[in-house]
Specification:
Length: 131
């Protein structure tokens, strides 16, 4: 299952030329990941309260076309793979049918000592339900 959410590019997201700042593509994907987790019946707050922390370990990003002020962007998120202590998501940003940006993000589950741990069953089962 691909989760989809739409955000608008605001003035604060752009540079002096009205083009969306490159780092904001990643910020929009972060917001979309939060919505993806929410669509699975979980919240970041719940995961945090249960000491189920997932942090970004690696990002592969491909900037294909710029976004500009007032664009409506659709961010699609889907699970690619679950490993022992990590999972991989693919996120793509579209303006209508044009693909502007794509990334794969590896998230690693950690404990309170910042050490990798197995993906907790609650999170793993929720992620698997998205397939």
């Amino acid at each position: 299952m691909t989760h989809s959410v739409t955000y608008r590019v605001y003035y604060e997201d752009t540079d002096a030329g009205g083009i969306m700042y490159h780092g904001n593509f990643i910020n929009f994907c972060e917001r979309a990941r939060t919505e993806f987790i929410g669509s699975l019946g979980l919240t970041n707050r719940l995961l945090h309260e249960k000491n189920m922390l997932a942090v970004v370990r690696h990002i592969e990003a491909d900037y294909k076309m710029p976004a500009v002020l007032e664009d409506y962007l659709r961010i699609e998120t889907e699970l690619v793979e679950i490993k022992n202590s990590s999972f991989i998501l693919k996120q793509v940003i579209f303006r209508e049918e044009d693909e502007l940006f794509a990334m794969k993000v590896v998230l690693v589950c950690i404990n309170e000592k910042m050490r990798p741990v197995r993906v907790p069953d609650l999170l793993k089962n929720a992620l698997l339900s998205s397939l």
